[in-house]
Amino acid sequence: MIRINDIKLSLTYTNKELLKNAAAEISVKESDIKKIRLVKLSVDARKKQNIHFNASVEASLDNEQRILNRFPINKVSPVSETKYSVSFVGEAEKRPVVVGFGPAGIFAALTLAESGMKPIVLERGYDCDSRTKAVDLFRNKGIFDKNSNIQFGEGGAGTFSDGKLTTGIRDVRIKHVFETFVKYGAPEEILYLGKPHIGTDVLRDVIKNMRKEIIRLGGEVIFNAKLTDIITKNGRVKSAVYKRNDETFEIETDNIILAIGHSARDTFERLYKNGIAMAQKSFAMGVRIEHKQEDVNRSLYGEFYNHPSLSAADYKYAVHLPNGRSLFTFCMCPGGYVVASASEEETVVTNGMSYFSRNAENANSALLVNTDPSDFGSSYELAGMEFQRRIEKAAYIAGGGEYKAPVTLVGDFLKGSIPTEFKTVKPSYIPGTKFAAPESYLPDFITDTLREGIPLIAKKADFFNDEYAVLTGPETRSSSPVRILRNETLQSQTLRGLFPCGEGAGYAGGIVSAAVDGIKCAEAVIEQKG
Q1: Element (H, E) at 44
Q2: What is the SS3 string spanning 482-526?
Q3: 181 and 103 in contact (C-beta within 8 Å)?
């Protein structure tokens, strides 16, 4: 089997056109292709008058080596049929514990379960259905649950996001991650779309199905179970202590995969007190920007903006400024919502979320400025976390309390004034908003970079010129503010048997990379058993 790249297709292509164009690309007859499968499909909108799809296929033919010899490797390449598999090692004397049930924890637990090790998962938040009720109660009535919210609960922060599966890493496990999602209910299109996403509504069902499989294989998932301590002996994990419904439990174990996510601040503090090696880590902060999705579509698709074959347009921009900072878009959610994402009382945090259909009125994206440890004001390992917390508390005050978010309009922000009413773009954030200057909660270096950088992005994307676009803040949880240091065996540098994992530990950035890291940490535990 061979892979054929750069096949151009019309927006209304059929399977017949796919076969015809694939055959033409390698100068063979259509009848020579015995089997063909679409493996990548992306929109090429570089020329607004000629928007089309670019595709890659895997095809089976006779004399494949002859074709491979005729074309460069970037055009035609051989296909490897290797498939990821987990070694079965059977149940361990002491069952491994996975702390956290976000993407890293889910894939770590599933991998361990498939190996026969029957993991025990501790998740401080609720199961998906109960968590959804808690999130809805917060959004609609402002009633905050510190134990289960958009940051904590089954599926992690990714459950209430766009479910984007794009990633910058390269790893043989990525294909396995995608195939696993499809196996448990994700749409098959994620296997070939250039910018795949699942959507928060579909992702919830996928996660529940994965949890059921972990349990079927002998694993256990305990919700509302907050890790409170790790007992050690002679520099090695001895047990995990957790609290559930005001009752304390202890699980004897040799191995803990710590997939706690980037917002488990009390756990970071406990680890620090226990002497677990940690370090400050750079991350980014800023605001969410909302435009009309139709305006984004018109800008990026031109006269094709309402074509039925084109989904809601997305974007990604970055500008580098003379002050040494960068302003960039992040976690762009087409046809989505800005959501209340606090994990601590009397703080305001924003994030973006889309359903699978991506059919909401607004597009939103984080608009972030890079930070580094020199901005944190201290050498304390958790200073970045405290930096985030100060901004989130200031935003709560700026928003007037009751978890309302501070907002402004782009035009007023650039002029240094505060608006009095919304115009064409209405904010999607609930429980509510209040007009406030971003300077009231963000440090000067961030607001200065936003004010200088937005007009520069507007030179690349005309919809950024919309003076009525809404800025809602703050966006502070783009990634973890700390790295829990680990060695080449993926174990903590200071505690054997502890495997810092995923985004919260500083080793991933998004659903796919977190899932991959969860698999890698599970493999490391399995290798010890094997």
Answers
A1: strand 33-44
A2: EEECECCCCCECCCECEEECCCCCCCCCCHHHHHHHHHHHHHHHH
A3: no
Provide the greatest CA pair distance for the chain. 71
Interatomic CA distance for residues 121 and 114, integer angstroms: 14
Which pair of structure tokens corresponds to residue 387? 């930096």
Residue 405, both tokens? 């978010």
Write the pLDDT tens digit of every residue in 185-235: 999 999 999 999 999 999 999 999 999 999 999 999 999 999 999 999 999
Amino acid at 114: E
Read off the pTM: 0.95
Instruction: Output the CA–CA distances (angstroms, integers) from residue 229 to 150, 243, 261, 273, in the order listed.
Output: 24, 9, 17, 10
Q: How many CB atoms neighbour CB 346 within 10 A?
A: 13
Amino acid 209 reads N
Strands 97-99 and 318-320: unpaired
Q: How far is CA 410 from CA 289, 447, 456, in A?
A: 9, 12, 13
Q: What is the mean pLDDT of residues 57-80?
A: 94
Are 305 and 440 in contact, with CB atoms under 8 Å apart?
Answer: no
Answer whether 348's CB lies under 8 Å from 474's CB: yes
